[in-house]
Amino acid sequence: MHEFSVAPLVEVGDSETLTDAVYARSLSEPDTTVLAVRERDGWRDVGYGELAGTVLAVARGLLAEGVRAGDRVVVLGPTSLDWVVADLAVLSVGAVTVPVYPTASAEQVRAVLADAEPVACFADPNALPRLDDALGTELVWRLGESFAELASSGEAVCADEVGNRRARVRADDAATIVYTSGTTGEPKGCVLTHRNILAASGNVVALLPELFGWRGRQPTTLLFLPLAHVYGRVVLYGCLGAATRTGLVGNAADLVSELPAFRPTFLVGVPYVLEKIRKAVPDESAVPALLGGRLTHMICGGASLDASTLRFFTRAGLTVLGAYGLTETASTATMSAPTANLPGAAGRPVPGTTIAIGDDGEILVRGPQVSPGYWPDHGTGQEWVPTGDLGVLQDGYLRITGRRKEIIVTSGGKNVAPSLLEDRLRLHPLVANCMVVGEGRPYVSALVTVDPVALRNWAGTAEVDPADPRLLAEIATAVDEANALVSRAESIRRFRVVAGDFTVERGQLTPSLRLRRMVIEKDFAAEIEQLYAS
Questions:
Q1: Sequential DSSP letters for 8-41
Q2: Predicted structure pTM score
Q3: Lowest CB count within 10 Å: 34, 130, 221, 439, which one?
Q4: Where are the domains of the chain?
Q5: Do the two domains 2-9+196-405 and 48-169 of this chain adopt the same fold?
């Protein structure tokens, strides 16, 4: 087994918790801006003092309502100040946050509630009409709107009691249970401790002084990742601890329009977002102005970034840092740094982490950020976490080569990594998404969805028949470019443009926008059969 380790830059003490930074800085620097929220007339800054005061008031309310240490409390809603307050308040009383995506179906919510058995729920008011029956817990508070009510009931609780609760929380206590179903299967509740998240966020911040110590001034970023995803939470807690002015964006679709005015110094995202920016601004010379003129670095995690997209942003004067992780590693396993950035790689192990490649090529992770297990039968830690991903180590740099479970084996016995073809196909401006198929088939094919905005710009209308010869010819050029990356036996022989797009709401994508292949194969079974009909 080939492995590579990096020594820690930050070690978490046994009594450290995720709420420490906010409360400590509220005393030492109450007026320092830490969050920013979009209001009708612009961005409103929130200092450590205001944030801690609101959190303390809500935490007292939770105690008044009987929330105890170890209890689970659901937080369901988009990225917002209210989400952050609810999360910090839950953690302040020693309880455990159970995040749920606002796009979750009623069935998914019921499954989480049945497994986690929460005592209460904070829910986005906009989601309540759709999910009211599914929530069903006795205590359902409306995110933001119920804070005043909780603060009022909490007046009967001494403020020192929250401090007493916080003092009893230990680093190895559960902080959150993140439900992840991946691309198949029933949701599993991954337990992450205060230590897990602090080790992940603290070591990344220490690794990247170019981002978090921006030219001697306060760094700024826009957080548009969903806080129901651990990636967003780790970014949040890293920024809270590093006094980064963090603008909260509840809808990723609003990101591009907010960038010029907010003027972030760095961004953290996923390849899908960077590819959307590239499609929106085909001329790299226009990128700096679009991004606000101060942005120097972008962290890109979640999947491999195509080499041409990387070159595009490099020519625009930006440094793109690859990263890799999964829920079970608090979203951090490897990270590039400005001084150690190999194009196309996902970086080296985050400080404190060991990466290994098993005999079968699977990536294994060990470190203080590794989850102790799944709810409710979690233990005290795992030696190695199998990721399900395939990769290679080169001088300590990790390259992702595919997913074990996603490898397609054709009837001729050829192993095909679909993500390589899919990532290249998605670079075409007209391609919104795609999925390669061919398990047990004589050749590889693909389902392709079209971006309606790009289609309108290209054809003058979004109402184009999926079988239109001009459209098929244009998509064929993208297929040819993807096929140039692989052997003929691995290449896409046929494709089908399908109406609509793959969506989270229809269960075809995970909340982190990964393909749920089994669902898509079922939904488009007839179209797939036609690809092999002759």
A1: -S----TT--TTHHHHHHHHH-TTSEEEEEEETT
A2: 0.83
A3: 130
A4: 2-9+196-405, 48-169, 407-531
A5: yes
